[in-house]
Amino acid sequence: MNEIAAFPLVQLGQSDLRVTPICLGTMTFGEQVDEPTAHAILDRAVERGVNFLDTAEMYAVPARRETCGATETIIGRWLTARPGMRQRLVLATKVAGPSRGMPWVRNGLGMTAADIAASCEGSLRRLRTDVIDLYQIHWPERHVPAFGQLYYDPAKEKSETPIHEQLQALGRLVRAGKVRHIGLSNETPWGVHEFVRLAEQHGLPRVATVQNPYGLLNRSWDNALDETCHRLGVSLLAYSPLGFGLLTGKYDQHAPTDRGAQQDARIARFESVRKQRWGRPEALAGARRYNQLARDHGLTPTQLALAFCYRSWRVASTIIGVTTLAQLDENLDAWSVQLVPELLAEIDAIRWQWRDPAQ
Fold it and tell me: Where does the NADP-dependent oxidoreductase domain start and stop, copy by copy (predicted)?
């Protein structure tokens, strides 16, 4: 196992949470990754200095009724078997928004105060903890373009739960000591502004973070959310920095749907994932450009993609998802990679041509 220098700690927003700039994402636990392997990955991450874990009530992914909550349960059993471990970690999870075709997660079109409270209690029980350090809304209750949709359509607006009501529900959880800080995910500039405005107006919890996609194939964050969150003091937690594997180079010879692709990979195994932004032909074509750029500069595709996120001023912590110990070590070792200005300029030149093919 390679060794890396100790990670610095990063403050999340205006909260008192201080986390490593690399966060272990866990959504594969309970689907691609069995429990013993998940525990080994968690152990290795902590051994190597990671103090930040992210999960969600709806995980494992791709979402199925049979595995809903499985990831939190696996983490809870891991924590219980290691006395004192909980105090060393910043633990983040998420409350699911409206159903989006998953009635086993949420009934109806809304996300009521009662839904938020019940979901929090379920996560606390599965995680076997008394408090969640960062509790995030997984996707907005209102209808926004997300998960591969590009355009906002007012005709589809069916919001049933005002943001003020959501904040009040989260505030009750904070006052009860069940949640320390709150965050958002898959949000828009307007949404972030509104959550902050209402929190400050009504003395309610202020969002510390937004967890959105960010990486070489999707830099939509740079088109308004970067300024929004910088000025408001809200931190980015970047997810999918490797583009569901496209930016590792493993699909450079074969598309995810080809027989030659790695069939154990998430994008290769699950049709629902391929139909989203990561399965677009232009996303694969763009990834191949970045991957070749990495090789031209003596780097692996994974090193280039992760270093881009790790060293960006926009990113507080990058969420990595792995299925093996080898992948974990590779991702952590990439922390030592520095990208010179000339290489960053070449990255921007590719983006100018390809823009954000996995937005």
Answer: 21-350
